[in-house]
Design goal:
The chain has helices at about 10-20, 35-40, 55-60, 75-90, 105-110, 120-130, 140, 200-210, and strands at about 1-5, 25-30, 45-50, 70, 95, 115, 145-150, 155-160, 170-175, 180, 185-190, 195-200. The chain is an alpha/beta fold and about 210 residues long. It folds into two domains: about 1-120, Rossmann fold (3-Layer(aba) Sandwich); about 140-210, Alpha-Beta Plaits (2-Layer Sandwich), CATH 3.30.70. It has a six-stranded parallel beta sheet, with helices on both faces. The radius of gyration is 18 Å and the shape is globular.
Length: about 210
């Protein structure tokens, strides 16, 4: 896969190294020339110098042959603007990082469905480990090519009418912050959040399925 990362922050560099180790092609868009020079000997990847929220630079990065764009700068506004610009240019998958809780619902309203809010993720994980001593964290449980796929339902949808790829199963859904388990009679409502366990190759099929509904 080819990945474009806006912003060479610590989390971005750590992510890039993991992706490179797995054989993926990574290109950074970074506004600091000194930062690029410091990383060029450390990472086997490409670099573009400039503002990652600039449509011209995002276009130069190549939306037509990019699988995922991560916007991971230290500025929420830059990440959101970069995400919106990338979407307008045809990037098919965009993941934005935000540090302020108020931006998360805003991103969803703007169509940036894959928004990361690290503070919530880490605090929930710590609380979970506190209450469930000895329990394993999700990143220790979802192994190899398995992945969790989460999708918000926009209109009423009977569970029986949802035909998933062979390598994917709905394992639960959230309604009003409560985890529920589906059965054949379940009818999902607008606002429900489906949690699907899938093998990696099925993720693209899931995107096609939900984007075409």
């Amino acid at each position: 896969m080819r990945i474009v990362i806006v912003g060479a922050t610590k989390i971005a560099v750590a992510t890039a190294q993991l992706l490179i180790d797995k054989g993926h092609q990574v290109t950074f868009i970074e506004r600091s020339k000194a930062r690029i020079e410091a990383l060029s000997d450390e990472l086997d990847c490409g670099f573009l110098l400039g503002d990652g929220s600039s449509p011209d630079l995002l276009r130069e990065a190549g939306p037509d042959h990019t699988d995922v764009l991560f916007s991971l700068t230290s500025h929420d506004q830059t990440n959101i603007i970069a995400g919106l610009a990338a979407r307008s240019l045809g990037y098919t998958r965009i993941v934005c990082l935000v540090d302020e809780a108020d931006y998360e619902p805003l991103c969803r309203e703007l169509g940036l469905e894959e928004t990361l809010y690290p503070l919530r993720s880490v605090s929930r994980h710590l609380a979970y480990l506190t209450e469930h001593w000895g329990a394993r964290s999700p990143d220790e449980t979802i192994k190899h090519d398995a992945a969790l796929y989460v999708r918000h339902i926009e209109a009423e949808l009977p569970a029986a009418s949802l035909v998933l790829p062979d390598d994917a199963r709905v394992i639960g859904y959230y309604r009003a912050d409560r985890l529920e388990f589906p059965d054949p009679e379940t009818v999902w409502q607008s606002g429900d959040e489906l949690v699907i366990l899938a093998r990696g190759p099925a993720l693209g099929k899931l995107d096609e399925l939900f984007n075409n509904r």
